[in-house]
């Protein structure tokens, strides 16, 4: 029994090793077996966890000299790094994609449409749909089309409560929308260096702007509210906020864009308002900064409308937005 137990211990490393060979290169057994004999047991545990020999993980000479992995999986050198870079849970991600797709559709979709547009297996879509319907986040109508459920409203109410925008500021946005007959907004600068849309009031025009929602943030260097705020921040804050959204550009392109924005910010500070003509084709926005008691920029107020309407009444709309910003600043400083 002792001899058998000892033999079992000597052969233990071969088990994960064979799993690796079956998956990648079965013909290399003699070569890999010689390498395996020199590796500590913890290396074989790593093979099971990551599907590869991890170079340099344990400092043993075979690990240091091992070739790069044959597996496409990433090489994580410690537990902390690994946990921070793990991909999101696929089932949860698919459920959220499903929910966001339904929320973004103008017409309620069917499960088949969700499956086709998201590239998901139809059976998976039915499982996700039943789960979301069961929790109240979706409703399935008699015609089998999907709409958002009541549970989404509860989430939205909780989201809105965190904004804590005063009734007077909300009333000011209402008045701006009524006066201009265009969609009006109020956005604030948050501690995470994002300018978040907090109040949104649709205009009375028959042709309105879509795609806006309470909680909208990001791409501040393009949005009118974002640029109105950015123009009054320190260079360090400007750079931090802008670079969050420029990851797809090269370093040289980023520097060129930052230089162009610096010039635009000077114009915004001088005239008191910013304009956005790039977020959506045919849509323009005007935003003006709002300041708190300490003279620091607090947010921005403005309007969004089809470019054709803003162009024809540009000076009037700019005047209305500037007046709304002046009143909002007065409310915050009183």
From TrEMBL:
InterPro entries: GAF-like_dom_sf, HTH_MetabolicPath_Reg, Tscrpt_reg_IclR_C, Tscrpt_reg_IclR_N, WH-like_DNA-bd_sf, WH_DNA-bd_sf. It comes from the Bacteria. Residues 89-150 form the HTH iclR-type domain. This is IclR family transcriptional regulator. One of its GO terms (molecular function) is DNA-binding transcription factor activity. PANTHER family: HELIX-TURN-HELIX TRANSCRIPTIONAL REGULATOR, ICLR FAMILY, HTH-TYPE TRANSCRIPTIONAL REPRESSOR ALLR. The lineage of its organism: Bacteria, Bacillati, Actinomycetota, Actinomycetes, Kitasatosporales. Keywords: DNA-binding, Transcription, Transcription regulation. Residues 77-87 have a biased composition (Polar residues).
